[in-house]
Design a protein that fits this description.
Blueprint lengths: L1 H12 L3 H14 L2 H10 L11 H12 L3 H11 L2 H8 L12 H10 L5 H12 L4 H12 L8 H12 L3 H7 L11 H4 L2 H5 L36 E8 L2 E6 L23 E7 L2 E2 L4 E2 L3 H8 L13
Helix pairs in contact: 1-2, 1-9, 2-10, 5-6, 6-9, 10-11
């Protein structure tokens, strides 16, 4: 935990991209193997579900510090971050914790998901009483899931590319898809042979980015190509080894939510990848429907024929 807390402090205090890249690269070069996968998961949107609510954390902190509710709220309002507020208010630890890696604390937090509230409280308060302030702050962040320290997916990719000497484009593909840091090592993800055995693995999405310079740098407007910005779900359809998969941009496998694509299976050759926007379409009006038409589909666990539209 101390190693990860040091990384978070460096990333939070730095405004320079190169310093953040160097810190991330050094971490991946020296951290425990199981911790590496967890850090990649935390900073790429694969955070575990919260097992403890903000209200519970607030109440347990008030009990442990003896503060009044209004004084805690005043402190929270001044600091602006629950995890940091609690880390600052808690008294100095009375017990010295045995140094544990990051994955130990994350797996313990995951075990709390179905625990009774009394057991959750006992574990959280005991941990607060053992960790140093900087480690408490990170521990609280792990609970609340609020890491906002300016680390993008592309920065993570570039740091890993620097550490392992793998081209960034290749690495983006290797770490994509559905994987669980509880049973996946970073070395497994970076193994190209493992990636080839996963028929479902998506590619990095082809995204548009804001211009860094003026529009004049793009050449004559007569030579430009423009396309509509459709309001749907960004998706990637893949066919490999006679199987078809549909991924969302958030790297969630959503094949079963769109059975309309099933007729394409015998029509597309193996190796086909289609990256684009999933839309509902009004064939009578000859135009896409509003995004709201897709919202009910996203939330459905089971999609029946009555919920489907013919693909266009």
């Amino acid at each position: 935990m101390h190693h990860f807390a040091s990384l978070v402090k460096t990333l939070s205090n730095s405004t320079k991209t190169n310093e953040k890249l160097e810190a991330l690269s050094n971490y991946f070069a020296t951290a425990e193997e199981k911790d590496k996968a967890w850090v990649l998961a935390l900073f790429s949107g694969r955070r575990p579900k919260r097992a403890v609510t903000s209200t519970q954390l607030k109440n347990w902190c008030i009990q442990q510090t003896g503060l009044s509710d209004w004084l805690f709220e005043e402190c929270y309002h001044t600091v602006g971050d629950l995890a940091e507020t609690i880390a600052l208010l808690l008294p100095e630890p009375t017990h010295k914790a045995v140094a544990q890696p990051l994955y130990y604390w994350l797996e313990r937090l995951l075990q709390l998901e179905k625990a009774e509230e009394a057991d959750k409280q006992a574990f959280i308060r005991q941990t607060w009483d053992e960790l140093q302030r900087s480690e408490r702050f990170v521990f609280n962040k792990l609970i609340t899931g609020g890491f906002r320290i300016g680390v993008s997916q592309s920065m993570m990719v570039n740091a890993l590319a620097k550490t392992y000497d793998i081209p960034a484009a290749t690495l983006s593909h290797l770490i994509s898809g559905s994987w669980d840091p509880r049973n996946t090592l970073l070395s497994d993800l970076l193994n190209a042979e493992n990636a080839q055995t996963d028929n479902s693995k998506p590619y990095p999405f082809y995204l548009a980015y804001a211009l860094e310079g003026g529009a004049d740098n793009l050449g004559a407007p007569a030579e430009w190509n423009a396309e509509w910005k459709w309001d749907g779900i960004r998706g990637q359809l893949i066919k490999r080894n006679e199987e078809m998969f549909v991924w969302s941009r958030g790297e969630e496998l959503i094949t079963e939510k769109f059975p309309e694509f099933t007729p394409l299976l015998p029509l597309l050759p193996n190796g086909t990848v289609i990256d684009g926007e999933i839309l509902t379409f009004d064939s009578d009006q000859g135009r896409p429907l509003p995004f709201q038409a897709l919202q009910t589909r996203i939330g459905r666990k089971n999609v029946t024929k009555n919920n489907c539209r013919k693909p266009r």
